[in-house]
C-alpha cells in the first residue's frame, strides 16, 4: 500500500470539490473493496476522501417509491422492514453476497462501484486491460471459469461480481449522483458499462461524481410476492456467483402479468433479461414456459475455454429460479 | 463411569484461555524493541534475480534493513559442506528463482505498516528462464523418488486385474490443496549475543525447530530456545522449519533487534507447503462374485525442482483389501513450484480417494452393495507384510456407520432416490493410517498442595493434547483432573516427537502414563508400601511424612518391542448422505458419519471435535478446495481466502463421530492408535460415491463443484 492523503469532509459539496481537484483521488465509503485493492497495489491513490460523515445514510419512503442513501450499509438495507416487505428481491440478493461482517461495512454506493474479482485484475504480476490499459487480457486465453457469457470484448471478459446490483437491475433502480456540474439521475441499466475498448471504465460516472442515493420505483414493489434470488456458487456462503438469477413475477389468475429477471456472474454489468421478461408476460406458470424464457435469455451467449458449463448452468438457473419464485419447486 | 478417567469427556483445559483471548499465539508476544519483517516475492517462476533496487525502500521511514541475495549474511547451514546442512530452499543464499512468489527480499522496519510499505518499493530485475508448472504436460517426466521406500511394488503378478472377469480401470485427479490454517505462519526471533537465539514460532515440533535453527546457524541446540505454546491450526504446514523462520532469525541477528516476520495469506499459498496435485490410475479386477483378483495403483505427484517431496499415496492399496495380486508405482514430477508438505492424512487421503472411488465403481459393475464388496475382500491379517494386525475392528465400523447414516434407505440404482426435486445418495469411503509411537520423555512434579505439573516438549495444533494428557495423568494417578497441569510447546522441556502422524497421544501419552506410574511407585515406596500396591494412599500426606515440599521425576517412554510382530493401523469407515439438485448441481451434504477404530479413546469430547474437524477437511478436499495455476505465468490465480474455497459453516450440516473404542493391546499402555489423520482419510471418496449414488455422475476430478454435476 502506498502513502496517501486523507480527508473526511462533512458536506457533500466539499467532498465533490475535493475530488474534482485531485486527479488521482478516490471516495472511501465502507472500504471493503477499495482498501483490499490498495493493499494489493491495484489502486494507488494520492488522496482518499472519506465520505462516511456525509448525510447520505437515510432510507426513507417517498411518493415515488423508496430512497436509499448511498451510505446505507448493505445490512441496513437487507434488514429494512419496508424493503423486506415491498422489495424482498433486493434483501435476498444482498444477503446472498459476501459475509455478515462485510455487509455491515459495505455501503449501497460502494456495492454499485464494486470492481471485478477477475484474478488477472487482482494480480499486478499478470496482464489486465482493466487495471493497466493496453497490457492485455489475461483471462481471454487464461483460466476464465468465472468469466462472462454476454457483452464481453476481446479487451476484457470480466464480470461484475455484485449480487445487489443484479436485484437493482431487476427492480429498475435509479442511481442519483451529483458532481461539480450538478446532480443527475442514471437508470441502473445505463450505470454499468460493457467493456468494449475501455474496460478500465466500469460505469458511466463522470470524473468527480458521487453517488448520493439509489431510488427504487413504486412500480417495482408490485414484484414482491413471487420472488427468488438463486445464486449458484462453489461453496454455500462467501463465494462469488458462478451464475445468479434474480427473478420476480407478478401473477394474476395463474398468469404471469409481468416479469423481472436479471442475471449475475455472466457479464460486465448486471444482465437484465428483457427479452425473457417480454416472453413470460401473459404466459402460464409452467416449467416449459420457463425453459423457453431461459432459451430466449441465452441468445447471444458466448463461452470461453473454462466457462462453457455456464451455457448450461445459466439457463438451468433461470428455470430453477422461476420455479422457486412461483412455487413449482421448493 | 469413573470421572476424570480415560474415556471421559473432559472440556479443553485451555478452552477458557482460547475463547477469552488469553491464549497467546506466536504472533502475540510483546517483545521489547520489536521490529517487523515483510517478505518481497518474485513475480517470475524460474531464472535469476539480476538486480534489486532497494534504494527507495531503504530510504523509507523506519526501515532498518533490506536483506537480499546480494547482501544477506551467510547462513552456515546453507553453505556447501555444512556440518549440519539445512534441506530445502536456501533463502537469500543465492539469486536463483525456482518458483513464482519465492521470496527475493526481506524488509525490516520499526512498524509492520512501514515494513509493508517499504516492501512495495523494492524493484526487481530478472533474467527469466523457461519454466514448467503444467503437471499434465510434464507427467512423463515423473521419476521414482530416490529417498525412502518408493520402489515399484509387486505382490503376486503385476496388472493381474486386466485378465479378471470384471474390471475397473480409471484415473483420478486430486488438485493441489493448501493447508490454510486460520493462524498465519509467524516467527519472532531475537538473539542474546552471537550464539543464543529465541524464537516464538508456529511449530508442530519445538524440538525439531530447535535442531533446525541450531543447524542453520551452527549453534549448540541448547542455545536455541523455541516457544510455540498455542498453534492456531497447522495440518502439517508447520512440521518443518521453513526458510522464512530462518530468515527472521537471520534478520534479527543483522539488525540486532527482535524481528517478527508474518507471512501474508497470499504467501501462505507458496511458502509453507501444500498437498500436491496427484493423478492416480487404478485398475481393479474381480471375480463375478466380487473377490478381488488384482489391484494396480499408479500415482504421479507434483514436487519441486529444488527439493523432492514424497508421501505414501499408493500404500493403502497394498494392505487394505485381500487381493493376491497387487502392484503399485509412485513417481514425482519436479516442477517450478514451492515444495509440498504433508497435509492431514498425507498420502493415504490421496490414495484412498482413488482406491475407494474405484471400489465403488466396481460395486456397481458387480451389482453388489459397496459394504458387501468390502466385506468380501476383508482381510484379517496384513497381506502386505504378512503379519497380524495389532487390532482391527473395521467390520464393526462398517456396521455401526451404516446404521448411523441410514444405509438401509440407500437405493442401489443411481437417481432412484428422491426427496422433492433433490436426488438423494449414500456413499462409503474407508481408510487406514499407520499407528505410530515415538520415544518421548515427560517430567512430573507433585507439590505439597496436591497439585501436579507435567512437562513435555510436544505441541498442540488443535486436538487438545494438554487435555488428553491431563486425563491420562488423572486416570493413572487417581486424582482429579483440575489438580493437574500439563505444559508443552517449549523446547526446554523434556524431549517429545513433533506432532504429526497421529502419534502424539501414543508417544507422549505413554510418557505421561509411565511417569505417573513411576511417581506413584515412588510414593508407595516412600509410604513404606509395595510399589505395585493397589491400596489407595494420600500422596500429600506421604510428602508431609517425608518433609518434602515436592517430588519430581523424569521418565522416558519407548515403544514396545513386541510391536515389531504386528501391523498397526487405525481404520475408518466414512459415510455420507447427500442431496444433489439435478438442474443446478448444488450439493447439500446432509450428514457425514465417521466411524473409526482408533483403539482406546482417551477423551471423547476432544476426540469427537477432532473427527468433525477432519471431516470438514474432507469436505474441503471433496467439494471446494483447489489451488489453480495459470501455467503461462506459473502463478496461482486463486491464492487468497476469497477465491480458494475452504468450507464455511453453511457447507456443513450434521457430522457424527462414532468410536469403536476398544484398546489396542500392543502399541502403547493406554491402548490408543491415533485419529488425527484417519478423521480425514476416506471422507472425500464417501462424498464422491454418495454423489454418484444420487446422480449417476462419477466425478473423478476433485473438487466436485456444481459445474461437474449438471
Describe, in short, the structure shown.
The complex is a heterodimer of chains A (330) and B (710). Chain A is an alpha+beta fold. Among the domains of chain A are: 5-50, Uridine Diphospho-n-acetylenolpyruvylglucosamine Reductase, domain 2, CATH 3.30.43; 221-326, Enolase-like, domain 1.
What does this structure look like?
The complex is a heterodimer of chains A (330) and B (710). Chain A is α+β, with helices and mostly antiparallel strands. Among the domains of chain A are: 5-50, Uridine Diphospho-n-acetylenolpyruvylglucosamine Reductase, domain 2 (2-Layer Sandwich), CATH 3.30.43; 221-326, Enolase-like, domain 1, CATH 3.30.390.50. Helices cover 28% and strands 22% of the residues of chain A. In chain A, helix 10 (274-280) runs antiparallel to helix 11 (287-297). Chain A is globular and about 60 Å long. The mean pLDDT of chain A is 97. Chain B has a 7-stranded mixed β-sheet with strand order 3-5-1-12-9-10-11. In chain B, strands 7-15-14-13-8 form a 5-stranded mixed β-sheet, covered by helices on one side. In chain B, helix 12 runs parallel beside helix 13. In chain B, 60% of the residues are buried. The mean pLDDT of chain B is 97. Classes of the chains: A alpha+beta (330), B alpha+beta (710).
**Count of folded domains of chain B:** 3
Mean pLDDT of chain B: 97
Write down the overall geometry of chain B: globular
**Total E-strand runs of chain B:** 28
Strand proportion of chain B, as a percent range, falls in: 15-25%
Order of helices and strands of chain A: EHEHEEEHHHHHHEEHEEEEEHHH
Shape estimate of chain A? globular
Amino acid at each position: 500500500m502506498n502513502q496517501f492523503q486523507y480527508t473526511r469532509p462533512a458536506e457533500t459539496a466539499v467532498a465533490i470539490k475535493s475530488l474534482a481537484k485531485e486527479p488521482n483521488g478516490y471516495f472511501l465509503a465502507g472500504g471493503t473493496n477499495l482498501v483490499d485493492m490498495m493493499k494489493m497495489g491495484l489502486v494507488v491513490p494520492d488522496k482518499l476522501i472519506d465520505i462516511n460523515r456525509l448525510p447520505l445514510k437515510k432510507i426513507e419512503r417517498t411518493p415515488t417509491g423508496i430512497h436509499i442513501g448511498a451510505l446505507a450499509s448493505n445490512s441496513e438495507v437487507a434488514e429494512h422492514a419496508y424493503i423486506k416487505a415491498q422489495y424482498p428481491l433486493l434483501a435476498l440478493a444482498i444477503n446472498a453476497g459476501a459475509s455478515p461482517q462485510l455487509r455491515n461495512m459495505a455501503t449501497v454506493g460502494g456495492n454499485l462501484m464494486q470492481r471485478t474479482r477477475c484474478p488477472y485484475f487482482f494480480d499486478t504480476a499478470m496482464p489486465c486491460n482493466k487495471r493497466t490499459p493496453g497490457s492485455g487480457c489475461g483471462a481471454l486465453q487464461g483460466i476464465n471459469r468465472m468469466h462472462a457469457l454476454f457483452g464481453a470484448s476481446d479487451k476484457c471478459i470480466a464480470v461484475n461480481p455484485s449480487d445487489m446490483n443484479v436485484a437493482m437491475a431487476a427492480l429498475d433502480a435509479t442511481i442519483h449522483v451529483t458532481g461539480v456540474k450538478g446532480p443527475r439521475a442514471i437508470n441502473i441499466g445505463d450505470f454499468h458499462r460493457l467493456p468494449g475498448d475501455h474496460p478500465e471504465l466500469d460505469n458511466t460516472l463522470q470524473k468527480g461524481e458521487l453517488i448520493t442515493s439509489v431510488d427504487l420505483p413504486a412500480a417495482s414493489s408490485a414484484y414482491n410476492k413471487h420472488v427468488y434470488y438463486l445464486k449458484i456458487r462453489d461453496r454455500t456462503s462467501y463465494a462469488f456467483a458462478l451464475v445468479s438469477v434474480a427473478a420476480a413475477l407478478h401473477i394474476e389468475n395463474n398468469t404471469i402479468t409481468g416479469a423481472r429477471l436479471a442475471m449475475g456472474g455472466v457479464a460486465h454489468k448486471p444482465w437484465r433479461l428483457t427479452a425473457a421478461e417480454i416472453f413470460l408476460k401473459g404466459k402460464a406458470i409452467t416449467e416449459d414456459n420457463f425453459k423457453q424464457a431461459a432459451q430466449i435469455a441465452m441468445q447471444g451467449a458466448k463461452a470461453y475455454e473454462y466457462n462453457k458449463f455456464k451455457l448450461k448452468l445459466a439457463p438451468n438457473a433461470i428455470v430453477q429460479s422461476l420455479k422457486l419464485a412461483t412455487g413449482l419447486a421448493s | 463411569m469413573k470421572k476424570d478417567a480415560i474415556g471421559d469427556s473432559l472440556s479443553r483445559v485451555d478452552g477458557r484461555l482460547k475463547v477469552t483471548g488469553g491464549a497467546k499465539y506466536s504472533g502475540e508476544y510483546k517483545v521489547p524493541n520489536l521490529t517487523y519483517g515483510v517478505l518481497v516475492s518474485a513475480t517470475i517462476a524460474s531464472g535469476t534475480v539480476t538486480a534489486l533496487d532497494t534504494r527507495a525502500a531503504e530510504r523509507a521511514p523506519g526501515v532498518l534493513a533490506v536483506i537480499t541475495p546480494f547482501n544477506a549474511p551467510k547462513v552456515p547451514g546453507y553453505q556447501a559442506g555444512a556440518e549440519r546442512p539445512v534441506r530445502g530452499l536456501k533463502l537469500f543464499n543465492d539469486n536463483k528463482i525456482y518458483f513464482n512468489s519465492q521470496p527475493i527480499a526481506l524488509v525490516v522496519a520499526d512498524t509492520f505498516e512501514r515494513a509493508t510499505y517499504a516492501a512495495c518499493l523494492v524493484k526487481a530485475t530478472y533474467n527469466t528462464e523457461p519454466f514448467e508448472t503444467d503437471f499434465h504436460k510434464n507427467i512423463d517426466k515423473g521419476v521414482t523418488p530416490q529417498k525412502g521406500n518408493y520402489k515399484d511394488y509387486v505382490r503376486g503378478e503385476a496388472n493381474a486385474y486386466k485378465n479378471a472377469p470384471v474390471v475397473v480401470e480409471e484415473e483420478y485427479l486430486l488438485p493441489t490443496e493448501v493447508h490454510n490454517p486460520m493462524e498465519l505462519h509467524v516467527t519472532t526471533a531475537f538473539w542474546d549475543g552471537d550464539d543464543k537465539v529465541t524464537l516464538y514460532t508456529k511449530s508442530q515440533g519445538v524440538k525439531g525447530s530447535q535442531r533446525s535453527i541450531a543447524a542453520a546457524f551452527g549453534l549448540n541446540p541448547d542455545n536455541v530456545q523455541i516457544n510455540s505454546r498455542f498453534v492456531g491450526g497447522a495440518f502439517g504446514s508447520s512440521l518443518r522449519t521453513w526458510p522464512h523462520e530462518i530468515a527472521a532469525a537471520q534478520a534479527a541477528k543483522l539488525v540486532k533487534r527482535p524481528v517478527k516476520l508474518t507471512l501474508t495469506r497470499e504467501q501462505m499459498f507458496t511458502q509453507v507447503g501444500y498437498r500436491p496435485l496427484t493423478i492416480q490410475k487404478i485398475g481393479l479386477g474381480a471375480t463375478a462374485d466380487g473377490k478381488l483378483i488384482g489391484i494396480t495403483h499408479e500415482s504421479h505427484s507434483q514436487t519441486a525442482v529444488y527439493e523432492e517431496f514424497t508421501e505414501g499415496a499408493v500404500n493403502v492399496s497394498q494392505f487394505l483389501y485381500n487381493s493376491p495380486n497387487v502392484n503399485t508405482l509412485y513417481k514425482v514430477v519436479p516442477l517450478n513450484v514451492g515444495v509440498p508438505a504433508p497435509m492431514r492424512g498425507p498420502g493415504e487421503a490421496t490414495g484412498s480417494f482413488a482406491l475407494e472411488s474405484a471400489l465403488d465403481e466396481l460395486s456397481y459393475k458387480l451389482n453388489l452393495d459397496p459394504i458387501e464388496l468390502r466385506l468380501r475382500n476383508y482381510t484379517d491379517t496384513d497381506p502386505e507384510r504378512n503379519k497380524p494386525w495389532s487390532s482391527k475392528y473395521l467390520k464393526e465400523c462398517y456396521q455401526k456407520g451404516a446404521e448411523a447414516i441410514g444405509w438401509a434407505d440407500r437405493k442401489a440404482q443411481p437417481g432412484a432416490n428422491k426427496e422433492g426435486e433433490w436426488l438423494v445418495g449414500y456413499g462409503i469411503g474407508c481408510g487406514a493410517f499407520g499407528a505410530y509411537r515415538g520415544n518421548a520423555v515427560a517430567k512430573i512434579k507433585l507439590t505439597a498442595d496436591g497439585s501436579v505439573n507435567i512437562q513435555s516438549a510436544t505441541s498442540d495444533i488443535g486436538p487438545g493434547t494438554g487435555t488428553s494428557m491431563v486425563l491420562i495423568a488423572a486416570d493413572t494417578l487417581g486424582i482429579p483432573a483440575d489438580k493437574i497441569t500439563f505444559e508443552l510447546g517449549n523446547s526446554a522441556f523434556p524431549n517429545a516427537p513433533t506432532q504429526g502422524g497421529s502419534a502424539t497421544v501414543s508417544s507422549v501419552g505413554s510418557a505421561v502414563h509411565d511417569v505417573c506410574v513411576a511417581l506413584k511407585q515412588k510414593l508407595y515406596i516412600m509410604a513404606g508400601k509395595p510399589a505395585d500396591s493397589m491400596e489407595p494412599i494420600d500422596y500429600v500426606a506421604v510428602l508431609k511424612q517425608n518433609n518434602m515440599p515436592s517430588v519430581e521425576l523424569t521418565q522416558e517412554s519407548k515403544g514396545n518391542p513386541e510391536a515389531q510382530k504386528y501391523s498397526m493401523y487405525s481404520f475408518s469407515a466414512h459415510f455420507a448422505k447427500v442431496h444433489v439438485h439435478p438442474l443446478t448441481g448444488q450439493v447439500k451434504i446432509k450428514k457425514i458419519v465417521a466411524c473409526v477404530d482408533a483403539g482406546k479413546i482417551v477423551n471423547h469430547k476432544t476426540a469427537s471435535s477432532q473427527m468433525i474437524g477432519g471431516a470438514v477437511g474432507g469436505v474441503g478436499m471433496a467439494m471446494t478446495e483447489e489451488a489453480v495455476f495459470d501455467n503461462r505465468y506459473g502463478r496461482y490465480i486463486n491464492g487468497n481466502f476469497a477465491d480458494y474455497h475452504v468450507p464455511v459453516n453453511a457447507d456443513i450440516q450434521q457430522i457424527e463421530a462414532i468410536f469403536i473404542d476398544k484398546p489396542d493391546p500392543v502399541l502403547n499402555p493406554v491402548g490408543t492408535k491415533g485419529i488425527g489423520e484417519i478423521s480425514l482419510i476416506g471422507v472425500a471418496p464417501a462424498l464422491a460415491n454418495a454423489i454418484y449414488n444420487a446422480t449417476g455422475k462419477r466425478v473423478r476430478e476433485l473438487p466436485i463443484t456444481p459445474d461437474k454435476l449438471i
